[in-house]
Amino acid sequence: MITTIFLDLDDTLFSFQQAEQVALEETMRHYTLPYSDEILALYSAGNDAQWKLLEQGKVQRSEIGYRRFDLLLTHLGSDLDREEVNHYYMERLSSRHFFLPGAEELLSALHGRYTLCLASNGTGWVQEGRLKNSGILPLLDRVFISEYLGANKPQLGFFDACFASLPGVKRSESLMLGDSLTSDIRGGSNTGLRTVWFNPHGKEPRPDIRPSYTIHALSELLPLLASIQ
Questions:
Q1: 8, 10, 179, 184: which one is catalytic?
Q2: Which of 129, 185, 215, 219 has a CA between 20 and 30 Å from the CA of residue 201?
Q3: pTM (2 decimals)?
Q4: CA distances for 48 relative to 40, 106, 121, 173, angstroms
Q5: In whole angstroms, how far apart are CA 63 and each of 41, 57, 60, 159, 206?
Q6: Mean pLDDT score of the chain, rounded to an integer?
Q7: Active site includes 8?
Q8: Cα gap 43→17, rounded to integer Å
Q9: CA-CA distance, 9 to 130, in Å (whole number)?
Q10: Dihedral of CA 170/52/64/27: which sign?
Q11: Rounded Cα gap, residues 41 and 35, in angstroms
Q12: What is residue 214's predicted lDDT score, i.e. its pLDDT?
């Protein structure tokens, strides 16, 4: 029986792509830099690469903002201060949230029936701003942000820190829901949690990372939970 659910935030409950697009467009406009779909794609690819490196322990969190904007601004031939541009962007991002289809309904349905724990690798103050603005904090029992725990998903230390503050909660009765195979599913599996891969876009699975279950819409989670013994 599942008693506790760990929920990823970006691209599981919130659409990070929408928030990223709005925040980047506002940032580029503020600094009178060009913006287009190609610029967004370039930035997004560079940003994703930095977060993957963080998961692997190859960069520090403090380096991500500089590195992603250095890649973009170097491409554009701009000598703007990378840290300044990154901070402006993060301020814009912290005030943006866009729910994925079914996310609000799912949280309302789960609230009171399970212990709900948000589990995010995102930057602390940015995620706190987005959560506050979204109004979902009353539906969550705990919020775990890797920056404050001193370890990132998929590291065992992240989940160890979570369970250390959840006395009586058993890993065998816990589940991790998330969109990232390398972060959410690998981390949850290595920790002894059952895992649900949220895969709305039909991404190809990986033979080295095997989720316990896969869903393609958030509405599929409740029936799945009812079937888990």
A1: 8
A2: 129
A3: 0.93
A4: 12, 27, 13, 31
A5: 20, 12, 5, 23, 29
A6: 96
A7: yes
A8: 11
A9: 10
A10: negative
A11: 10
A12: 98
